[in-house]
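Attaching the record inline, Q. Sequence:
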Amino acid sequence: MRLGEFHALSFDCYGTLIDWEAGMLAALGPWRGRTCPRGDDEALLAAFARHESAQQAETPGLGYREVLARVLHRIAREVEVDLRADEARAFAASIGAWPAFPDSPAALRYLKQHYTLVVLSNVDRASFAASEAALGVSFDAVYTAEDIGSYKPDARNFAYLVARMAERGIAATRLLHVAQSLYHDHVPAKAAGLATAWIDRRAGRAGGATVLPGGPVSYDFRFATLGALADAHRAEIGR
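Structure, as predicted:
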């Protein structure tokens, strides 16, 4: 399988293009200090992963900002640390301030010369618009949980992606799904019949802000960064 076989790339955004772990930890501010007095950010991210997946399963039609607020309330109850309403609101509103990974903008500019670029994200459209500006690329299509009414890894999200791409004349066999999360993206994308590229932002380390998949995972390509994927495409076409 070669990268040049595909006509379109669909991306998970947060964790793949945007460094949501760094963004969330920064947004938590003083509350993070009260919660992680020993600096155990990995434990906080693991708690986020558990509660986010549970909240999304319980309330699939709830907007992502409200999901974030409820997740933070759940974590606060679990660790028995007080949470003010303004802290929850600030966290929920922080999505647009989460930083792009340093390699993302240049890699996306390059890839846009060769592919249709699509986003399949669990956030709402308004939040993604701020992230799109930070990435410096206008995507050809953006599909969010707000549009679909469910959150990845729900199979409906990938069925929606495949159907919308077919309307654009792009068959599922010509679509490569590019993502960091094995749980949210690779397992359901493979079940939908898509080829996938794993952007292994955590360099093989388990954990972080996503739960682990419950079974085996397969993917067709593995890169440490999106920049490495772009470099592999350059090498393929000899430029």
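The longest helix spans residues 41-58. The first strand starts at residue 8 and ends at 11.

More tomorrow.
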